[in-house]
Design brief:
Helices cover 28% and strands 18% of the residues. With 277 residues, it is an alpha/beta fold.
Length: 277
């Protein structure tokens, strides 16, 4: 009989299949160790998931935690650029059976598709199941060394890759990233409902591009209109973990591959929640 795992949502109460309840989690390589896994998700692209992922990993690293980033956005990876790793390639183990993550300047372990391509500008033209399989291999075939907190930077949407990550990795919780536009409310609700369906805890919401501060009067200018993040959070009984502004310093640090130099505190509440897992 064919394996139904790829289509399983883990919500057995609404499933018509006559099958035994199964655990689809896959194991790390022998010798690898990851204590906690946190997914950074959103229902749409362009809201800053990679920025949030990077800030969280850097902030916990500065606190002495061993952090890692699994870049699950196979067709649109941006994590290497933020850390100045655009010209770096991941290496194979001595026996050729596994991959070693690239280590950032501050010691963050990173695996991304761009670290495997001969040319970082080459497109990855794969269908969904192949992309999902690559993400699974980033978990099973990479030598993750004593990681306290791994952040999984998800692609947008609720398709193959989020489903694979939620099924295959022992995700301890997710953080949903949004922006102030009214349209995002529907998209955020989709991401939260997917996590609830698959019994993945939602740790809270982070709103990115929340405002711009006037350099003269320090007033918060809401470029994208009034935020509705508080209403969304109240609807799902979730905390708002951060409202991150658009700042020239942060943008420049990402563009220059120097995100580890930032010392911003916007995500500290999210860091506190993560440390209590």
């Amino acid at each position: 009989m064919a394996d139904k795992s790829e289509g399983c949502s883990h919500n057995c109460s609404s499933c018509g299949e006559k099958c035994e309840k199964r655990d689809f989690h896959v194991d790390l390589r022998p010798g690898s160790k990851v204590k906690k896994v946190i997914g950074i998700v959103s229902g749409k692209g362009g809201v800053g998931k990679s920025m949030v992922t990077s800030l969280l990993a850097c902030r916990l690293s500065k606190k002495g935690k061993r952090t890692a980033i699994l870049d699950a956005d196979i067709t649109g990876p941006s994590i290497p650029e933020a850390f100045g790793l655009g010209q770096i390639h991941a290496t194979s183990s001595d026996d050729g059976q596994s991959l070693n993550p690239v280590i950032s300047d501050s010691g963050i372990q990173i695996m991304s598709m761009n670290l495997l391509l001969e040319n970082e500008n080459d497109p990855v033209i794969w269908r969904g199941p192949v992309i999902a399989g690559a993400v699974k291999q980033f978990w099973t075939d990479v030598n993750w060394k004593d990681v306290d907190y791994m952040f999984v930077d998800m692609p947008p949407g609720t398709g193959d890759v989020p489903l694979t990550v939620f099924q295959s990795l022992p995700v301890d919780g997710i953080i949903v990233v949004s922006s102030p536009q009214q349209l995002v409310r529907v998209i955020v609700e989709k991401a939260v409902k997917m996590a609830n369906t698959m019994n993945i805890p939602v740790l809270g919401l982070i709103e990115n591009m929340s405002y711009v501060k006037c350099p003269d009067c320090n007033k918060e200018i809401k470029v994208f209109g009034e935020s509705n993040i508080e209403a969304i959070a109240q609807h799902f009984n979730l905390p708002v973990l951060a409202r991150i502004p658009t700042e020239r310093e942060m943008t420049a640090a990402v563009d220059n591959g120097d995100i580890e130099s930032l010392d911003v505190t916007y995500v500290d509440q999210a860091v506190d929640i993560i440390e209590k897992l």
